[in-house]
Amino acid sequence: MAKMWAGRTAGETDRLADDFNSSIHFDSRMYAEDIKGSMAHAAMLGAKGIITKKEADTLIEGLAGILSDLDCGKLEFDMSAEDIHMFVEQVLTERLGDVGKKLHTARSRNDQVALDLRMYLRAELDEIVKLAKDLIAAVTEKAEEYADVIMPGYTHLQRAQPILFGHHLMAYAMMLLRDVERLGDCRKRMNLSPIGCCALAGTTYDTDRHFEAGQLEFDGICRNSLDGVSDRDFALEMLSALSILMMHLSRFSEEVILWCSWEFKFVELSDAYTTGSSIMPQKKNPDMAELVRGKTGRVYGDLMALLTTLKGIPLAYNKDMQEDKESIFDAVDTVKMCLQVFTGMVGTMQANKENMLRAAQKGFINATDLADYLVKKGMPFRSAYKISGGLVAYCIRENTVLEELPLAVYKAQSDLFDTDLYDAISLRTCVETRISEGGTSLASVKAQIAYVKEQLK
Fold it and tell me: Among 81, 124, 394, 426, which is 20 to 30 Å from 331 by CA?
């Protein structure tokens, strides 16, 4: 394909250099945004009288035809083209002749590619938000199903205090809600139009940048032309938000992997989201969760790659910035796939209530409640803490649990103990008396579920 920029040079480059320079093999995915942006640009040129209304209509009709032909497969991408912008313009010129050459009036590929990327990522961001909300809904539904199931809560991966499984799941729902909020904040700064900034300094034509921005559903325009063509903060911000989202999925994956091991056996994953072993017939591997955990590093790498690419670039546009797309495209594709798989995995996951309860009973995770029992009867907390710890040590030596110790053993430690302590240290009581807002009581968990459902609306 002939170089549209031939003039200052002959437009002839080495074949290997051509391949190295070309981006159409990855930026062709932005063809719809490129064409729609060009249609808005043509409309603006016509409205301002920079080209005639008839010429503008001809350009818009020609662009619509290219879009339709690409959508249905009638037209294929020419991989010898330098990029998607040159490809579309070349096809348009072949179809319309000299009128097609007027499309690029009052713009540059610098502001054009910035426009395409903002439009493309805006749509992908909206899709990721939708997928994240689907996952939140699945997690919330699972939390509702197992709202009152007692399990051990952990710190340092040591059994700490009894909680409800619904409460544990809702922690992830809250994390994912923040991810949705972060992406929404990112969208606000992304949704500004750079078109009209041209190469770096604007244009001598009397353009209407606000007209184009409105046509393309932007909230406003980039206010400085140098910044407009060189800004990729919106891509970095999206990558950062996606990295945090993936970190949350990775933490969740780690717990799912632990929970479905024989050592825990808290949950059972559907066969649809596990794999077997080629040599060990008893295996049921949580490969989907492991892959999500692994792909988290990939998204982190995409963020670091773009940060590193941008860190030393002087204003305005430099060819280094072509490297922005593969990183953000890879992260977008990865996150979308992970969210979809994770939603199905969580939605079909089943809890082993008995194993969760057994693990809670054997962990002495009501020791804090035993201390609180004494505190409520007037003993200083540190004194109560010491007595409670001593009774746990006694239980370990005698291979028993706090709930089964005779009252006489308790009385030997303090006269404040009475028969009511057995109700106070039952796991159900331990959970239900956590009445502080956001805690693990059933009423609190139900309130959290209601809150998230309202947010999802």
Answer: 81
3 state SS of 52? coil
Cis peptide before 384 (omega within 30 of 0): no
How far is it, in rounded angstroms, from Cα 161 to Cα 436? 15
At residue 5, the pLDDT reads 46
Angle at 22 between CA 314 and CA 243, to 5 degrees: 60
Task: Report the distance separating Cα 343 and Cα 270, nearest Å.
Answer: 12
DSSP 65-76: HHHHHHHHTSS-
Number of Cβ atoms within 10 Å of the Cβ of 284:
13
Angle at 209 between CA 205 and CA 213, to 5 degrees: 155
For the chain, what is the radius of gyration of the CA atoms?
Answer: 31
Tell me which residue has tokens 């939708």: 130
From the candidates 80, 261, 277, 383, give the one annotated as an active-site residue: 277
| Token pair recorded at residue 401 | 């649990």
Q: Does the active-site annotation cover 277? A: yes
pTM value?
A: 0.92
Whether residue 325 contacts residue 25, with contact meaning beta carbons closer than 8 Å, is answered with: no
Q: How far apart are CA 223 and CA 211, in angstroms?
A: 15
pLDDT one-digit tens code per residue, 322-336: 999 999 999 999 999
Question: Cα(244)–Cα(456) distance, rounded to whole angstroms?
Answer: 20
Phi, psi at residue 155, to the nearest 5°? -130, 145
Select which of 156, 167, 253, 436 is catalytic: 156
Rounded Cα distance between 41 and 212, Å, is 6
CA 245, chain centre distance (Å): 4
Which two three-digit tokens encode residue 111? 């502001």
| CB within 8 Å of 13: residues ≥ 6 apart | 3, 21
Query: Distance between CA 133 and CA 59 in Å, rounded?
Result: 40
Q: Phi/psi at 159 (nearest 5 deg)? A: -60, 130
Active site residue 156: yes
Smallest CA-to-CA distance from 185 within 233, 137, 146, 142 is with 233
State both tokens at 126.
Answer: 């909206």
Q: HSE-up of 413 (CA within 13 Å, CB side)?
A: 22
